[in-house]
Design goal:
The protein is an alpha/beta fold. Helices cover 43% and strands 9% of the residues. The longest helix has 26 residues. Bound molecules: thiamine diphosphate and magnesium ion (MG). Keywords: Oxidoreductase, Pyruvate, Thiamine pyrophosphate.
Length: 362
């Protein structure tokens, strides 16, 4: 059954406005900043995939094609808000202030990557890999804001597939029942690994899941940053004013593999991917800005050079970080250290010393 919900799109795939744009979109400085960040995200993402291919980081989940969502969400959030992200949120995290080298450390299997240096993101959550569990964590954070009377918003993201999980639906329910200051941003990139959207769920939209929980839901074109910025901005404002939670389903497409451990050519038709490239968000905003006379090829080349230098500096910092001792796998797990694990930790440290050819205490 279809529940009529708005689906917002301002820019056509070729960047032409489809009608009047929201008033804030006259701010070309803002739109240019967003564009710069989208390009930085894309180049960083490409580098991360290359680092995995050359064995320098572990599995990585590319954000290719979903840059508009993350950049818009990250730029709308205030420092005091809390992001509760999932694994395809490089764009949001970078915009919030997480450092590129921290993201590389995380995907390199190093916990220091979740120990964000920037004070503005100290309270943001680490990347969540278990599907949809973060939706409930965000409701916990929002409950704390509400009890303390703070004007802060918890923002949580997830994929289309995650909206089939009980955790997600329970989170919507508690958010609606308690009118929590939480915004759910669904990155509907059409695939949950090899499972296409149409067989994940019988409802015609994912946004309508919000309606059953008593909160507003709507769709936006997730390749159109003007639409994402406008609608997520409104949802954040509502939540900040104590008017309750909201859900925004952003329609996008995962242009890359699910992760570097996946080969999407085995289950996706080439034609579908080719078609999706026509809609992609970076080119769309670039075409719009060029038509307004505020972007051109020389600015583009300068931006690419600048972004590549930033990415390279981050890679250098990441590679200089060195490996943590193997027994660090026990760290950050318990508030109070369980004595029973002491022996295991010592055993592991000793084995590691032996493996390195060092001295054993045996
Ligand atoms: C609880 C749980 N079940 C299964 C998985 C394995 N898994 C990893 S990603 C994924 C698909 C998620 O798809 P979607 O929510 O659409 O997000 P996307 O990866 O497309 O951004 C699954 C099933 C997991 N990580 N956690
Ligand atoms: Mg998906």
């Amino acid at each position: 059954m279809t529940i009529e919900l708005p689906c917002t799109r301002y820019l056509a795939p070729d960047g032409r406005p489809l009608g009047a744009l929201p008033a804030w979109a006259d701010d070309f400085d803002l739109l240019t900043r967003l564009y710069r960040q989208m390009v930085l995200t894309r180049l960083f993402d490409r580098k991360a995939v290359a680092l995995q291919r050359t064995g320098r980081i572990g599995t990585y989940a590319p954000t290719l094609g979903q840059e508009a969502i993350g950049v818009a969400v990250g730029s709308l959030m205030r420092p005091e808000d809390v992001l509760v992200p999932y694994y395809r949120d490089t764009a949001v995290q970078l915009m919030r202030g997480v450092k590129m080298e921290e993201i590389l450390l995380y995907w390199g299997g190093d916990e220091r990557g979740s120990d964000y240096a920037d004070p503005a993101v100290r309270e943001d959550f680490p990347i969540c890999v278990p599907i949809a569990t973060q939706s409930l964590h965000a409701c916990g954070v929002a409950t704390a804001f509400k009890i303390r009377g703070e004007r802060r918003v918890a923002v949580t993201t997830c994929g289309d597939g995650a909206t089939s999980k009980g955790d997600f639906l329970e989170a919507l329910n508690v958010a609606g029942a308690w009118q929590l200051p939480v915004v759910f941003v669904v990155n509907n990139n059409q695939w949950a690994i090899s499972v296409p959207r149409r067989i994940q769920c019988g409802a015609p939209t994912l946004a309508q899941k919000a309606v059953g929980a008593g909160l507003p839901g709507e769709q936006v074109d997730g390749n159109d940053i003007v639409a994402v910025y406008d609608r997520v901005g409104s949802a954040l404002e509502r939540a900040r004013q104590g008017k309750g939670p909201a859900l925004v389903e952003c329609l996008s497409y995962r242009l890359g593999d699910h992760t570097t451990a996946d080969d999407a050519t085995r289950y996706r038709p080439d034609e579908e991917v080719r078609q999706a490239w026509q809609e992609e968000p970076v080119k769309r905003l670039q075409s719009f800005l060029a038509a307004q006379g505020v972007w051109d090829e020389s600015r583009e080349q300068a931006l690419i050079a600048d972004c590549q230098a930033q990415v390279q500096r981050a890679v250098t910092v990441f590679e200089a970080a060195g490996q943590q001792p193997v027994e660090s796998v026990f760290e950050h797990l318990y508030a109070r250290w369980p004595a029973a694990l002491t022996e295991q930790r010592e055993m592991l440290a000793e084995r590691a010393t032996r493996a390195r050819g060092g001295e054993s205490h045996e």
